[in-house]
Design a protein that fits this description.
Shape: elongated
Number of helices: 11
Helix content: 25-40%
CATH topology of the domain at 345-474: L,D-transpeptidase catalytic domain-like
Number of strands: 33
Oligomer: single chain
Largest sheet: 5 strands, mixed
Radius of gyration: 48 Å
Strand content: 25-35%
Strand order of the largest sheet: 27-26-25-33-28
């Protein structure tokens, strides 16, 4: 009995060992090959290596064509032309996913499993093809839109155009199935009535919201001056998102609002203007040659911009104020030349200037308090066209010019070839008057306001007085 029992035990152990050995050899053989019963889009790939399956997928994918019949035209295209592509890597991975499970090795002996190809879709490309198909049969519609009005101060609606769309079952579904099945296909494209994704009413709602943003006032005060954004400026700040053809909620662009505030602040900023004045021995100011002016600088532009952005984002108008810092002006002081305090202009030492005495009808040139030319007899403005009175500066010089203007009675005059002109205030100038034979008077026979000089005297002044030279006219 003992010997028989031993034989039975040995036999019972030997059978499982044989099965395990056979299973291990089976698994080892198929470790890097497609399992028995494996098909890809109905095509048997049993026993193929990953490289062989990859080559098969690529070959079949490249051979796929789709024939589209619209009733008007027929066209044949590859998947890629229509915005579809067989994704080779994920497709091959799907075939070999079963190799990761021991149970799949066993079940593959008595069952089969089919894997469709993995297809990648480029939505933008497919939509373009669909639009081309629709336009080819004259049935393309369009969504409503919103754009700036011609005056760029408000927003208006571009109405939707009713059209048709392609039935997915006759185009998109067919192409997708062809890609997954790795085989070519033919289809008759069917067109159906389509409601625009963005209706005119929906676009009007968006335009109304955009115009409501433009209607909000944006004002910044700087001292006594107010700066308000124009409708055109505010309209340029509005952005309307467009996602997959759908209109979003209008909003103010914070960057553009901030840029506008800083532009206003830059216009408010003023550099100080240095002045020049002549002073006597005691330091008292006797003559302001060039007025000085303090400057200002805005100090809170960033804070104002942030507040404006916040208000507009909350659907409110905005009113704010710039804070300003004074930038003090500087002075350059020149001592008054000895004796110049008794003249019409208290010039500093070495300063050139021109004295025009309207009572004596003379012109005299000085350097400081020293007379260097004249007095020269001249003709000043008539009673009805008098010469301006005050302290001015030569601002432009011309060797010759045709002068035009109006007479006292309103008629026009034209005087060509006027020589050696030194303008000192608007249309008032020192210039030669070759048409005159005598000087030293005004009254009814005076000029149109200019200082008429003998031509040699006018040339002398032209050479003597550079731009910026003071000209003092007085009675």
């Amino acid at each position: 009995m003992r010997a028989r029992t031993k034989v039975l035990i040995t036999t019972a152990v030997a059978v499982p060992l044989l099965l395990v050995g056979a299973g291990t050899a089976y698994a080892t053989h198929y470790r890097y090959r497609a399992l028995p019963g494996s098909t890809l889009a109905g095509i048997s790939v049993e026993g193929m290596s990953r490289a062989e399956v990859t080559a098969l997928v690529q070959q079949r994918a490249n051979a796929i064509t789709i024939t589209l019949d619209t009733g008007e035209v027929t066209r044949t295209a590859r998947l890629a032309d229509l915005g579809y592509a067989v994704d080779v890597g994920p497709t091959v991975d799907a075939v070999f996913d079963a190799n990761a499970s021991w149970s799949a090795y066993a079940s593959s002996l008595v069952s089969s499993h089919d894997v469709p190809a993995v297809v990648r879709v480029d939505q933008a490309a497919t939509q373009k093809v669909a639009a081309d198909l629709l336009s080819g049969v004259g049935q393309a519609g369009s969504n409503a839109g919103v754009k700036l009005a011609p005056n760029r101060k408000s927003f208006v609606v571009v109405p939707a155009v009713q059209g048709r769309s392609i039935a997915a079952a006759s185009y998109q579904d067919v192409v997708l199935a062809a890609g997954r099945g790795l085989k070519s296909a033919e289809t008759r494209v069917q067109f159906v009535d389509a409601v625009p994704a963005v209706t005119t009413a929906a676009a009007q709602h968006v335009a109304d919201r955009a115009n409501a943003l433009v209607a909000h006032s944006v004002t910044v005060t700087a001292g006594s001056e107010k700066h308000s954004a124009s409708k055109k400026a505010k309209a340029s700040w509005v952005t309307i998102p467009l996602t997959n053809g759908m209109l979003g909620t209008p909003a103010m662009n914070a960057t553009k609002v901030t840029a506008w505030v800083h532009k206003v602040a830059k216009g408010v900023d003023q550099d100080p203007s240095a002045g020049v004045r002549n002073v006597d021995a005691s330091g008292a100011v006797r003559q302001v040659v060039t007025p000085a002016k303090d400057g200002v600088a805005v100090t809170n532009a960033d804070a104002v911009a942030a507040a404006a952005v916040s208000a507009l984002a909350s659907g409110r108008s905005f009113s704010g104020s710039f804070e300003q810092r004074t930038l003090p002006a500087t002075w350059t002081e020149h001592p008054v030349a000895a004796g110049a305090d008794k003249l019409a202009y208290h010039a500093s030492n070495g300063q050139r200037w021109v004295d025009v005495n309207l009572s004596k009808h003379t012109m005299t040139a000085y350097v400081g308090a020293k007379r260097v030319h004249g007095p020269v007899k001249m003709v000043n403005g008539s009673d009805k066209k008098p010469t301006v009175v005050g302290t001015f500066k030569v601002y432009v010089k011309l060797p010759t010019q045709t002068m035009r203007g109006s007479n006292a009675d309103g008629t026009k005059y034209v005087t060509p070839d006027v020589p050696w002109i030194s303008y000192f205030h608007k249309g008032f100038a020192l210039h030669g008057a070759p048409w005159r034979s005598s000087f030293g008077y005004a009254g009814a026979r005076g000029s149109h306001g200019c200082i008429n000089l003998p031509v040699p005297a006018a040339k002398w002044v032209y050479d003597f007085a550079p731009v910026g030279t003071p000209v003092v006219t007085h009675v």
